[in-house]
Amino acid sequence: MMVQWRPLRVIIVGPQNTFSRVLATNIQYWGYEVVMLAAPRAIFDDGTRAMQGDVVLYDLDEVFPTFSRERDFPEMWPERGTANSSEEAEGQETHAPFIIAISSRSVSRVTLERIGAIALLQKSFFKMSWLQRYLKVLQRLTSPEGEALPQQYKQDENIRVLVVDDNEDIASTIQQCLIYESGYEVAVAHDGLDALELYLDWHPQCIVTDLLMPWMNGYQVMRCLALGTARGAPAFVVMSALNQLEVPIGSSYLRGKAVAYVNKPFNIDHLLSAIKQVCAG
């Protein structure tokens, strides 16, 4: 039976002020459903309310005073495809929403990981066009058929590698080295959102991503693809001088994934070996 397409349901969590009302107006204008929750604490006390949405826009400014330490932030919803006891009885599936954090201050990677955020939008740099792009990508990732990555490739087809790094010089150097040394087809993105758009349009077999990037880091790109309905998600190579300290141990979105780590600065041979390793797996 064909599943009917439906627009995203977006939950705005935070104070009902001018900012949130402008958000709601624009989101409705773009064709999505909107629900506003005024009390941030309600999202923790009754997580099932948020589970009814596909995307949560989570205003952290009202929550920081509630939790004095990062480790006090509750870990949030179960991963997509898990069910709670009441819904298991009814044979229904629940899923975690895509969480986009919004804040007027800096937010650590630890906090973003605990709340399961796929991105951080800071109010001082906020652009509606960015939010619209995020929602378009998430709509595609939650489409009934999913944005399927081909499971089989022709033997003579070059491996497609997407390089993601906010440093344009580094990204360009990696691109040229991969093409020259291996003959891979290589595309470049300079932030996580660009990477998701390229993934949906180009279907790379491997994503080589920097860990530390503004707005959406390497792990958030991985989380976003894991939460989506896409089948045959790509392999990942994560690049960073910090990656051994930043691996989110126990995160379900990393389980069963082909992931390798390369410390910066790195030798191109090490990167090529990592790509071959994850693509072979």
Structure description:
Residues 160-279 form the Response regulatory domain. This is Response regulator. The protein is α/β, with parallel strands linked by helices and 281 residues long. The protein has two domains: 9-141, Response regulator (Rossmann fold, 3-Layer(aba) Sandwich); 160-280, Rossmann fold (3-Layer(aba) Sandwich), CATH 3.40.50. Helices cover 36% and strands 18% of the residues. It contains eleven helices and ten strands. The chain has helices at 18-29, 42-45, 47-51, 85-90, 109-115, 128-141, 168-182, 192-202, 218-227, 243-246, 268-280, and strands at 9-13, 33-37, 55-59, 98-103, 117-122, 160-164, 185-189, 206-210, 235-239, 259-262. Strands 2-1-3-4-5 form a five-stranded parallel beta sheet, sandwiched between helices. α6 (128-141) runs parallel beside α8 (192-202) and α8 (192-202) packs across α9. It starts with 8 loop residues before the first strand and ends with a helix.
Give the helix/strand layout.
Layout: E1 9-13, H1 18-29, E2 33-37, H2 42-45, H3 47-51, E3 55-59, H4 85-90, E4 98-103, H5 109-115, E5 117-122, H6 128-141, E6 160-164, H7 168-182, E7 185-189, H8 192-202, E8 206-210, H9 218-227, E9 235-239, H10 243-246, E10 259-262, H11 268-280
Comma- or semicolon-separated keywords:
281 residues, elongated, 10 strands, Rossmann fold, 11 helices, alpha/beta, 2 domains
